[in-house]
Amino acid sequence: MSNILIVDDEIELCHFLNYLLCDLGHAVTVCTSGEDFDRAIMEKEFELAFLDIRLPDRNGLDILQHLKQRQPLCKVVVMTGYGTIKTAVSAIKFGADDFIEKPFDNIEDIELLTEQLLVKGSAPADHEALELASRLNCFIGKNEEMNQLYKLAYKFAKKNVTVLIEGETGTGKEVLAHFIHHASKRAGSPFIGVNCGAIQENLLESELFGHTKGAFTGAAKEKKGYFEQAGKGTLFLDEIGEASLATQVKLLRVLETGEFIKVGGETIKKNQARLIAASHVNLEEAVENGTFREDLLYRIDVVKLTIPPLRKRVEDIPQLVDYYLKQHELGLSFTPDTIECLCKYNWPGNMREFVNMIKRVAALAEGETAIITPHYLPSKLMSNSKYLASANVPTAVHQSIPAIEMNFADYLREWCQQMIDTWEDDDVVDLHHVLQMIKSMEVETLQAIIKKALKRTVGDRKQAAEQLGISLRTLRYYLNEKK
């Protein structure tokens, strides 16, 4: 038998919980106000508390913090209505173990939750969250913020609430969305992901809601949209901030009514999917700028999860390197100096940039070495590094090419790959750096071609100049000045 505390101003609900928990063999104390609560915790120790987030005379979060300070071992379940779910998120961050929505849909869920918290405690649930993340290859590491993020996501995954994931580009928003789907009761149903910014605006509505035959030019047959394809599963709308205001209106209707209509259709269809949205931009700022609807933000921002950027969890980089190398069986090892370079870099592209860096390094090292030194890293990771010293490579080249011995063909391939990487990078380009790369290419090309000519003429500069179609004076200039 355990002592259980109920704090709620709804008398009928208190009677219901009292009867249910007493029937399970527990001793129950009921409080209908903050004043009753103050007396109760002075008189008795409790193992579990069911706490309403709203009381007429006291803030529920204040009661929670007071309870945790007075009786830290007491497990807490927050009871909330739909309109106060965001407060429930705060309650869990303040130490609540779980939350349940009112009105209660299933008595068995309350019985099961009571048993889990009294018998197992909260630790097993946290362990289950990390175990699932490991099975899904979600790297979490030692960073406390990331650990808490996934534990929180695991708790809300089992609730039928909309989730908004925010984070910079490349932080792994879709990875977290997959985790939430697999941790939910919808895991056996489809997970449909769509990038709202990658679909043409005139096609986005059709892609989301489907269309009927003949709805527009090219609509040769009826098509199911993503909402319909998701069924009772999860629909992940990545970069929802890229959706037009017209599409946002239709998304709002789905969230408010649970209904949608195909393009060109008249039949109302029921949405059964759980929505997870994501954005790399701050949607509150987008609302202020007039590019995102405030009422839609209110609907999707029920539970907000923010993924920290890689630069704020550099303590995980050594473990992250080992994790990726083992996962892909690359058979490489990074020296301590190389790891130091990785930890000093800002990682604007986050995990996506990190993975691409590993792939690039592995390609450079293939057939050459299994030990990755700093010189195998991209130049942007080396720009402030002490490892750039080399007597044989011009200064300009140091700023764009790893200081490893290479012939001109290798240099050219490396230069082209770096220029392609720069072109494909979504972040702001440093034009000064690009110009330095172009200048270094000019220098290296001139030097390589002249040296090749001198090798053919066994060092005869006059003959080499004639073969190159330039004057001897120009040849001297390129050899002496263009360095």
From TrEMBL:
Alphabetized UniProt keyword annotations: ATP-binding, Nucleotide-binding, Phosphoprotein, Transcription, Transcription regulation
SUPFAM superfamilies, per this entry?
A: CheY-like (SSF52172), Homeodomain-like (SSF46689), P-loop containing nucleoside triphosphate hydrolases (SSF52540)
PROSITE patterns according to UniProt: RESPONSE_REGULATORY, SIGMA54_INTERACT_1, SIGMA54_INTERACT_4
Name positions with the PTM 4-aspartylphosphate: D52
Per UniProt, residues of the Sigma-54 factor interaction domain are 139-363
Q: Does the keyword Secreted apply?
A: no
InterPro entries the UniProt entry points to: AAA+_ATPase (IPR003593), AAA_lid_NorR (IPR058031), CheY-like_superfamily (IPR011006), Homeodomain-like_sf (IPR009057), HTH_Fis (IPR002197), P-loop_NTPase (IPR027417), Sig_transdc_resp-reg_receiver (IPR001789), Sigma_54_int (IPR002078)
- CDD domains (UniProt xref): AAA
Q: Which part of the chain is the Response regulatory domain?
A: 3-117
Q: Name one Pfam family in it.
A: AAA_lid_14
Q: Which Gene3D superfamilies match?
A: 1.10.8.60, 3.40.50.2300, Homeodomain-like, P-loop containing nucleotide triphosphate hydrolases
User: What GO biological process term is on the record, naming one?
Assistant: regulation of DNA-templated transcription
Entry GO MF terms? ATP binding; sequence-specific DNA binding
Indicate what this protein is called per its UniProt record: Fis family transcriptional regulator
Q: Which organism is it from?
A: Heyndrickxia ginsengihumi
